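Sequence design from tokenized structure. All designs in this work follow the same two-part layout: the structure record, then the generated sequence. An example of the structure record is given first.
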């Protein structure tokens, strides 16, 4: 399907629309003076075709334009693509508004809502161009990743900026950027048709087949290795099974068949019963709980016994002390009742203060009552001590009993763990025996591996012929030769300086003139020769794309190609896009003749390939010929006419 540009659409921030319309399958020329926005057209189209980086000139473009859009014609449908200007000072933006239909008109700005992104846009446009799966798989000696060509890889042949169209160092759009030269070399063979459309499926089949073949060959080697070492390995497993009791110690395993028979029987072993540890774990937990409670009870009783005995001891000491004090106070009995009170000591007669005899008798009475109370509590205290002794003894015995039960349970658990370890060891041996017997069974001598391997190798040989890189290279050389024929014809029509065959050098991405020696474009003199090389290469490529139905958009945008024919930029800008400016230059000048010739070649090639090729040229020159005037998209951009309307700027 042919993709061409119907219009470029700009949206003012207030909703006004500027629509620049182009003719399908024709030469379209935009001429005018400098600083009218001509050079921005390539960046706008590139941006709307899925390039995230925003390269449109700063200034008024960014100040007043809110959305940039293109209307494409593709396979009988219209494809409208709009992208908002990046916000603030951002340099990239990947959101896209996409609409596909018949006879579309640019929607109002309030209906522009992003509904996809650059990545999905590129994939959808590639599918609409009917780009088949075309994975480029570098050779084994290359470290770069495989990639698939998309519409992004066709842009190298769609645009020629002002600084590219006559550049001696590089031929294609953005060729001077890192990694892009290799991308051109990897994708161009597919775009030219040197590689078959089903190559990707065949490459994938070959890759999977090679992987499977390696696996089968490894299995075949394992079969051979197992056959030579089988008896030794089998006997080793028999000895291991004997050591754990799976096979009787006196079993005869001197031959391979006997050893396998023993291993087959051992493989069917299974543990009769495996005592569960859950019950013993539960019992141990319950006993631990009982032991904690018994110890707590014993501790409480023992503390009570200690306190009772302490109380008994204190009572005895109290009894003794009270008794001694009472004995001392009994001395008051030497005073008769009714004896006069005196300050003299009744014993020594000394004249100093002494307690009254009455007070001493009251103290003695109190002590005697306390002694009686102590005596009355002794039987109860003795009974309490006897009771506590018994309870402490019972609690101690209960603790000792629970400890004995707990030691028995722990001993049983150790036996169970030992049993479980023995069973696990047996199970590991049985597992190795099973794995060995299964591997031996998979690698029997009568296996179909050799037949399968031979079939895979035969298919790989057939794929090798279909994917023969030499055949692809031969086809590519044939295409390049045909391109060279077209380039040579176009060079003659443009009347280039070197009258010789021209060809495209894909290895170096340049044009070569084959005189008595090969002269690459960079070593040719004169900017007009460099311009001519760019034109003949790009026009020949588009002719080939169209005539062979290749999935490349059918348009070419060239920015100011005629500048190389004027001695100074001032002379070039003097044209100002007017017929009168062109007429002011010297008539009959060879450079002016070359400009006419260049546009005439473009005009005639578009007619030859009509309606499948569209060429858009931005220029200062404005030729007076009728065919050129018919190619003008709009009146010359001067006196206020420009890409961005003057009233947008004044407002």
């Amino acid at each position: 399907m042919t993709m061409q540009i119907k219009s470029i659409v700009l949206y003012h921030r207030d909703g006004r629309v500027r629509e620049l319309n182009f003719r399908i399958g024709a030469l379209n020329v935009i001429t005018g003076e400098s600083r009218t926005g001509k050079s921005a057209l390539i960046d706008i189209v590139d941006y709307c075709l899925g390039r995230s980086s925003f390269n449109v000139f700063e200034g008024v473009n960014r100040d007043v334009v809110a959305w940039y859009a293109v209307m494409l014609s593709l396979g009988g449908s219209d494809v409208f693509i709009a992208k908002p200007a990046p916000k603030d000072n951002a340099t990239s933006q990947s959101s896209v508004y996409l609409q596909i239909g018949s006879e579309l008109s640019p929607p109002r700005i309030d209906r522009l809502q992003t509904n996809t992104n650059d990545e999905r846009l590129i994939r959808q446009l590639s599918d609409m161009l009917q780009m088949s799966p075309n994975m480029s798989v570098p050779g084994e000696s290359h470290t770069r990743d495989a990639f698939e060509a998309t519409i992004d890889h066709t842009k190298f042949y769609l645009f020629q900026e002002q600084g590219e169209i006559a550049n001696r160092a590089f031929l294609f759009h953005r060729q001077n950027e890192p990694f892009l030269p290799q991308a051109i070399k990897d994708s161009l063979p597919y775009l030219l048709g040197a590689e078959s459309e089903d190559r990707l499926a065949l490459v994938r089949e070959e890759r999977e087949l090679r992987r499977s073949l390696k696996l089968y060959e490894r299995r075949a080697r394992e079969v051979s290795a197992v056959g030579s070492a089988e008896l030794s390995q089998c006997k080793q497993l028999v000895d291991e099974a004997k050591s754990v009791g799976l096979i009787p110690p006196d079993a005869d395993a001197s031959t391979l068949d006997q050893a396998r028979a023993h291993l087959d029987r051992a493989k069917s072993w299974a543990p009769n019963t495996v005592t569960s540890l859950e019950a013993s774990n539960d019992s141990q937990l319950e006993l631990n709980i009982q032991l904690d409670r018994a110890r707590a009870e014993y501790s409480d009783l023992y503390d009570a016994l200690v306190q009772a005995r302490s109380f008994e001891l204190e009572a005895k000491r109290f009894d003794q002390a009270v008794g001694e004090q009472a004995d001392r106070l009994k001395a008051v009995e030497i005073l008769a009742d009714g004896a006069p009170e005196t300050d003299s000591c009744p014993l020594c007669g000394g004249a100093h203060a002494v307690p009254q005899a009455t007070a001493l008798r009251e103290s003695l009475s109190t002590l005697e009552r306390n002694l009686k109370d102590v005596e009355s509590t002794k039987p109860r205290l003795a009974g309490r001590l006897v009771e506590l002794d018994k309870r402490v003894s019972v609690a101690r015995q209960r603790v000792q009993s629970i400890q004995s039960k707990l030691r028995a349970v722990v001993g049983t658990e150790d036996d169970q763990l030992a049993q479980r370890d023995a069973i696990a060891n047996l199970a590991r041996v049985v597992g190795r025996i099973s794995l060995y017997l299964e591997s031996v069974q998979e690698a029997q001598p009568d296996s179909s591996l050799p037949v399968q391997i031979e079939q895979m190798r035969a298919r790989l040989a057939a794929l090798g012929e279909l994917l023969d890189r030499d055949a692809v290279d031969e086809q590519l050389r044939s295409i390049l030769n045909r391109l060279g024929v077209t380039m040579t014809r176009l060079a003659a029509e443009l009347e280039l300086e070197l009258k010789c065959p021209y060809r495209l050098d894909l290895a170096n991405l340049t044009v070569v003139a084959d005189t008595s020696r090969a002269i690459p474009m960079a070593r040719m003199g004169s900017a007009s020769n460099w311009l001519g090389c760019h034109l003949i290469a790009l026009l020949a490529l588009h002719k080939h794309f169209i005539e062979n139905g290749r999935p490349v958009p059918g348009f070419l945008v060239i920015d100011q190609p005629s500048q190389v024919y004027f001695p100074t930029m001032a002379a070039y800008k003097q044209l100002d896009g007017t017929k009168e400016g062109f007429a002011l230059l010297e008539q009959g000048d060879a450079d002016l003749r070359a400009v006419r010739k260049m546009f005439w070649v473009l005009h005639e090639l578009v007619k030859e390939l009509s309606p499948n090729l569209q060429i858009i040229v931005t220029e200062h020159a404005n030729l007076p010929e009728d065919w050129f005037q018919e190619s003008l998209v709009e009146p010359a951009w001067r006196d206020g006419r420009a890409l961005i309307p003057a009233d947008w700027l004044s407002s």
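Residues 357-442 form the longest helix (86 residues). We note this feature because it recurs in several other targets discussed in the main text.
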